[in-house]
Design a protein that fits this description.
74 residues; mainly beta; 38% strand
Length: 74
């Protein structure tokens, strides 16, 4: 598992994939934003790893592991 609950991550976006759980529009609107992992390492039937990220507006969205990156504190 790449990320753990409480990790700060940045949404990279531009990973348009019809099989992804996250909607592309959501990824685009949160691209570059930083959030906190609230649930992590959910394996999908296709073997993808999904993380639920909560943003400062308290909205939570699922992102595939390849859609997010670790964000240094500060």
């Amino acid at each position: 598992m790449k990320f753990e609950r409480g990790d700060t991550v940045r949404v990279m976006g531009n990973q348009a994939d019809p099989t992804a759980t996250s909607e592309y529009e959501i990824v685009a609107s949160y691209q570059g934003k930083v959030g906190t992992v609230v649930e992590g390492g959910i394996q999908t039937a296709t073997g993808r790893c999904i993380y639920v990220v909560e943003f400062t507006d308290h909205k939570q969205f699922p992102f595939a592991e390849e859609e997010i990156e670790a964000s240094p504190p500060g």
